[in-house]
From TrEMBL:
Domain named Major facilitator superfamily (MFS) profile: residues: 13-463
PROSITE patterns on file: MFS
Highest taxon in the source lineage: Bacteria
Parts of the chain that traverse the membrane: 12-35, 47-67, 79-102, 108-126, 138-159, 165-186, 198-219, 225-246, 266-290, 302-321, 333-351, 357-383, 395-417, 437-458
Keyword line: Cell membrane, Membrane, Transmembrane, Transmembrane helix, Transport
Name of the protein in question: Major facilitator superfamily transporter
InterPro entries xrefs: EmrB-like, MFS, MFS_dom, MFS_trans_sf
Topology within the bilayer: Multi-pass membrane protein
Pfam families xrefs: MFS_1 (PF07690)
Cellular compartment(s): Cell membrane
NCBIfam families: efflux_EmrB (TIGR00711)
PANTHER family: MAJOR FACILITATOR SUPERFAMILY MULTIDRUG TRANSPORTER MFSC (PTHR42718)
Species this protein is from: Enterococcus innesii
């Protein structure tokens, strides 16, 4: 059996696009620790400052669905150069911003760049990596942005303490210029671009859905559900979703190919992926609060406690991909999911007495489970589709991932805010109570993943797509 090797140019292309995706996530997580400094300098409330993160994810969620259209219409190198050019422009705007408005504009520009680059990285992997190495490389692709949330708070705290908040952006410029040169030299084109028509109405409806749902979730903890801020926002999201479902039935090339959801095997994995991302972002929101407000750790110490577990867990992602390549998807996905469930159960049981060391150990157990299951769920979902459908399938997965990130953060923030509004509780006691309730919610949600996995692997053996079977047969004959 001939083992196809991954070309150096493919490795370079994945690295270049991965660096851009990594920097996008790194800045988003690093900015959380500089909000007080920004609030003081620009005389803006923390509630308004939060839009530097919210608007970034909103733009990301709107641009990612366009990845199918962009891939079909433009060359990979053209997309990469546009993405990194926009991102560098946004970085420069933020580094030298003289007003809060310029900061917001810079974040919007960065969101557009990352929204182009993130799906591009996975499309290059799917298009140019031999199927026998696909699991490992999808794991690498998943690992690159997954490490950034672990490093972000520590990086941001260290930089702002020593050099000021503007240095966060300036320090990334040499890295991005290196990625620009690497991508220009290595990114290749395997499939000829074709003329495609942009689904403008579909894009507007997707944007309306995300804007409505994001605003609704953001205000859940502080406003009445029937207020305009929440009820009106959710109504806008629901109306846009209904219109989008009607629209995609009539459009030949919709912005999101929702017809892929008719594929039950793909949809089951997509739902598991959505819940897993939601739980991940929810937990990432809880732990820094607990460490700082209950255990009285500094922001930098909190980042350092989370850093080892998150980094080591993310580094296991390629190993999880190799397990998929060698043993199939069932073992790493089910095994990783059981580790996640165990960690969440222990977080809940020990919620009233979580020391720093215990948080670090349990978070490592959690991220280890993520490493073995998260990227493999994405690989497995795309493997259920024909080759020609995978770019559209990837766009849908990336879109769902952004929505899950926003939903997970907002839901847990609302639970925590509800507990903190209880006047009978001290601040630390309220965080403990909110954390305990949040762990229960995350545990119940993840129980749904285990039930879906049971259905997935106990049901009748799924029919393998013809394109995947053909590729594997050719490698075996080789």
């Amino acid at each position: 059996m001939k083992q196809e090797k991954i070309s150096r140019k493919t490795i370079g292309a994945v690295t270049a696009t991965g660096i851009l995706a990594f920097c996008g996530v790194l800045i988003s997580t690093a900015m959380n620790v500089i909000f007080p400094a920004l609030s003081a300098e620009f005389q803006v409330d923390i509630a308004v400052i939060q839009w530097l993160t919210t608007i970034y994810f909103l733009v990301l969620a709107i641009i990612v669905p366009l990845s199918g259209f962009l891939k079909q219409s433009f060359k990979n190198k053209t997309l990469f150069l546009a993405a990194i050019g926009l991102f560098i422009a946004g970085i420069i705007l933020n580094a030298f911003a003289s007003s809060f408005a310029l900061l917001l504009i810079g974040r919007v520009v960065q969101g557009i760049g990352t929204g182009i680059a993130l799906p591009l990285m996975f499309n290059i992997i799917l298009e140019q990596v031999p199927s026998g190495k696909l699991g490992m490389m999808m794991g690498v692709g998943t690992m690159i942005p997954a490490i950034a949330p672990a490093i972000g708070p520590t990086f941001g705290g260290w930089i702002v303490t020593r050099f000021g908040w503007r240095a966060i952006f300036i320090f990334l410029l040499p890295v991005l210029i290196g990625a620009l040169l690497l991508g220009a030299l290595t990114i290749e084109q395997k499939m000829k671009p074709q003329k495609a028509k942009l689904d403008l109405m579909g894009t507007i409806l997707v944007a309306g859905f995300f804007i409505g749902m994001t605003f609704g979730f953001s205000y859940m903890g502080s406003r009445s559900f029937f207020s305009l801020a929440i009820g009106g926002a959710f109504l806008l999201g629901a109306v846009c979703l209904c219109l989008l479902l009607l629209h995609v039935r009539k459009h030949a090339s919709p912005v999101l190919k929702l017809s892929l959801l008719k594929n039950k095997a793909y949809t089951l994995r997509l739902v598991c992926f959505f819940i897993m991302q939601l739980v991940l972002m929810g937990l990432v929101f809880i732990l820094p609060l607990y460490l700082q407000l209950v255990n009285q750790s500094t922001a930098q110490t909190a980042g350092l406690i989370i850093l080892p577990g998150a980094s080591l867990g993310a580094l296991f992602t390629p190993l999880g991909g190799r397990f998929l390549d060698r043993y199939g998807e069932k073992r790493p996905i089910v095994g990783g999911s059981l580790l996640i469930f165990s960690a969440l159960m222990l977080f809940w049981l020990l919620a009233e007495n979580l020391g720093n060391v215990m948080i670090g150990l349990l978070y490592f157990l959690f991220t280890l489970g993520i490493g073995f299951s998260f990227g493999n769920l994405m690989t497995s979902a795309l493997a259920q589709l024909e080759k020609v459908e995978q770019a559209a399938g990837n766009a849908l997965i990336m879109t769902v991932q952004q929505f899950a990130a926003a939903a997970g953060t907002a839901i847990i923030a609302a639970i925590m805010a509800k507990s903190q509004s209880n006047p009978a509780l001290s601040n630390s006691a309220a965080v403990v109570e909110g954390s305990k309730h949040s762990f229960v919610v995350l545990l119940l949600l993840f129980t749904g993943v285990l039930l879906l996995l049971g259905q997935m692997y106990l049901m009748k053996k799924e029919q393998q797509p013809a394109s995947l079977a053909k590729n594997q047969a050719e490698e075996t004959r080789g």
